[in-house]
Write a structure and sequence with these properties.
The chain is mainly alpha-helical. Helix content is about 80%, strand content about 0%. It has 15 helices and no strands. α3 crosses α9. The radius of gyration is 19 Å and the shape is globular. The protein starts with a helix and ends with a helix.
């Protein structure tokens, strides 16, 4: 019997645990995850997905070299992470100042690794193949949006910015590439790539850690994310209807652009969904950390409550199957 993709996604263990965490907050349960553990599981997921992505990229190179699909896809990923924050910035300037507009736009131009992982789990449940090199797109899309956001502040903000240090190119690059989550993801990807090239025995030793434990760690992390996302919902009232609408319609708009680019690149259905999810997701880890340090004038309640309190749950529960339907509809109209 065919199951509705949205229902099937909601009944997937990671999404169910996310909902369990959110419901716990709504019913005022005292469920709480001790503070060090969510950070630990976040770092673990970044390490595991980066390491596995590096292995897959090396395998792809050994199998067919840098094929006609890999380089255009990675280039398109970087292009999208540069364009999306610019589009978002000009939309947001209708209601917000330069600082808030740049910070929010950077968050929506960057990506959510956990949303990407959830999309992979969705594809597995649907028995749809995808390629490991898409993790390379994940790694490459995190930093450019941060750079664009900081450059927008640098060039569009008033020249006499009070209470803030001047941003130099070196500081911008440092915040973009050496932010903890970005650094770990890129480093793990390089480590996986090198180990797959040189020492295959190292892969066997790492497999139980990076593969067998992964799904359980994802569920545990999403349980905590459900708690945190539900706790952020009251902050959305302060954001106003314009920003709430932006938090829903911007991912849908980005997904529409993403599926058109995926079709232009002739990506397979699985790769297309992952590309679309990267375009439609928003960062609640790397960008907030960078913006808090370099753009203190921006209100963190805006870019954290929208990305974590609304966009992330929307993508996890409803967005991924909606994007899959969008991919299938576009591909049926314009077959590969």
């Amino acid at each position: 019997m065919a199951v509705n993709p949205i229902l099937q996604n909601v009944l997937a263990p990671p999404v169910l645990f996310f909902l369990i965490g959110a419901i716990a907050v709504f019913f005022k349960s005292d469920l709480e995850i001790p503070a060090p553990l969510p950070k630990l599981f976040s770092l673990y997921l970044l390490l595991a997905i980066g390491f596995r992505g590096g292995i897959e990229i090396q395998n792809e190179i050994q199998k067919s070299g840098l094929s006609d699909e890999v380089l255009p896809t990675l280039s398109a990923a970087i292009f999208m992470s540069l364009i999306i924050p610019l589009i978002g910035f000009f939309i947001l300037r209708y209601k917000f100042n330069v600082f808030n507009s740049a910070a929010i736009a950077a968050a929506y131009g960057s990506i959510s690794a956990v949303t990407f992982i959830s999309a992979e789990s969705f594809l597995d449940s649907q028995n749809i193949d995808f390629d490991g090199f898409m993790v390379g797109a994940l790694a490459l899309m995190e930093s450019p949006a941060i750079i664009v956001g900081l450059l927008l502040v640098k060039f569009a903000a008033p020249k006499n910015r009070p209470n803030s240090r001047k941003m130099h190119l070196r500081a911008i690059l440092h915040e973009s590439f050496l932010n903890g989550s970005v650094y770990l993801l890129l480093s793990s990807l390089i480590a996986g790539f090198l180990i797959a090239s040189i020492d295959h025995s190292g892969l066997d030793k790492m497999e139980p850690f990076t593969k067998d434990l992964f799904y359980g760690a994802e569920c545990f992390f999403l349980l905590d994310m459900g708690i945190v996302a539900a706790q952020r919902l009251p902050s959305l009232k302060k954001a106003g209807s314009f920003l709430i609408g932006f938090a829903i319609f911007m991912p849908l708009f980005n997904a529409l652009i993403g599926v058109c680019v995926a079709r232009f690149l002739s990506l397979g259905t699985g790769n297309a969904l992952l590309f679309v999810v990267l375009c439609a997701s928003a960062s609640y880890l790397a960008v907030p950390a960078a913006m808090r340090m370099t753009v203190p004038e921006a209100r963190s309640s805006y870019y954290i409550s929208t990305t974590l309190g609304l966009t992330f749950p929307f993508n996890i529960v409803l967005g991924i199957p909606i994007y899959m339907s969008l991919v299938k509809n576009i591909y049926s109209l314009y077959p590969l």
